Amino acid sequence: MARLLEGRIAIVTGAGRGIGRAHALELARHGAKVVVNDFGVSLAGEGTGESPASQVVDEIVSAGGQAVANAADVADFAQAEAMVRQAIETYGGLDILVNNAGFVRDRMLVNTSEEEWDAVIRVHLKGHFATLRHAGAYWRAESKAGRQREARVINTSSGAGLQGSIGQGTYSAAKAGIAGLTLVAAAEMVRYGVTVNAIAPVAKTRMTEGAFDTSAMALPEDNSPVVAWLASEDARDVTGRVIEIDGPQITVENGWAHGPSADAGARWEAAEVGPALRKLLGEAPVPENVYGA
Ligand SMILES: NC(=O)c1ccc[n+]([C@@H]2O[C@H](COP(=O)([O-])OP(=O)(O)OC[C@H]3O[C@@H](n4cnc5c(N)ncnc54)[C@H](O)[C@@H]3O)[C@@H](O)[C@H]2O)c1
User: Fold this and answer.
1) What CA–CA distance (Å, rounded) separates 245 from 158?
2) Contact in structure between 235 and 194 (CB atoms under 8 Å)
3) CATH number, domain at 119?
4) What does the alpha-carbon distance between residue 60 and residue 166 come to, in Å, rounded to a whole number?
5) Is 122 within 8 Å of 75 (Cβ atoms)?
6) Quick check: CB of 207 below 6 Å from ligand 1?
7) pLDDT tens digit string along 220-255?
8) Which of the residues are catalytic?
């Protein structure tokens, strides 16, 4: 097997279980030294007192790889900074950030509590921002000091964020936000040698087992080869993209783009908007179905 990540240094968040665990194992198999982060929370984000990150570290080390555990809450700004520092102090730098941690509290919008909204937005959106912010500042400093790294960020969006998903309004908003954040981060950080992409994974995990029929669903490890390649030096020309992975099928997700357009030449009369907009909508591609609709 060609090892794509020999000597590279990675953080994978939420890597104690599920898809994140599979990413950490795959990156280590390709020669990366991995900070395995997990806060050890339940599917709904409540504390469990478990430390699944240590178990994944043990798996990596017993297979001959290098890894250390980290128990940060990724959405805690100071803890996220300390996690980036841990990678730098333990292994001498940071090359790869895989933002994966998160949880769900699925509800129809009209039943969603303020607390559920805040918790799900926080873990996904702030959890991506906090790590990206601190890793990005490190990569900018390295670049300015003449030590630019081949840095890679792989974020985790979701089909729920790209197409929408009934009963997952909060989660869909957070995951759509992650797709938007990916575009901006990619554009801002290209000058520091950083690529930023996102995946929309699919896997049978505790997150999907309660919500869908998972009998034919892909496995967590089906997603990880794409992450390993995006994390490699070979992927330096790929940035600002969202890639859906469903078992053996990988798909480039087309995001928002300008479609059919009309110019009234002056402010529109409200009564004229209807016919004009209906004409444009007739020319535009029909949006894909919201999952579950
Ligand atoms: N399973 C799927 O089909 C699917 C589909 C689309 C997107 N996703 C996304 O993939 C990612 C992984 O999901 P999964 O299915 O493996 O779920 P999972 O529940 O099996 O794993 C998520 C891990 O993240 C950890 N975590 C949660 N909050 C954290 C925090 N604040 N700090 C650090 N760690 C934290 C949990 O302890 C858990 O071990 C999530 O972002 C999820 O939204 C999953």
Assistant:
1) 10
2) no
3) 3.40.50.720
4) 38
5) yes
6) yes
7) 999 999 999 999 999 999 999 999 999 999 999 999
8) 158, 171, 175
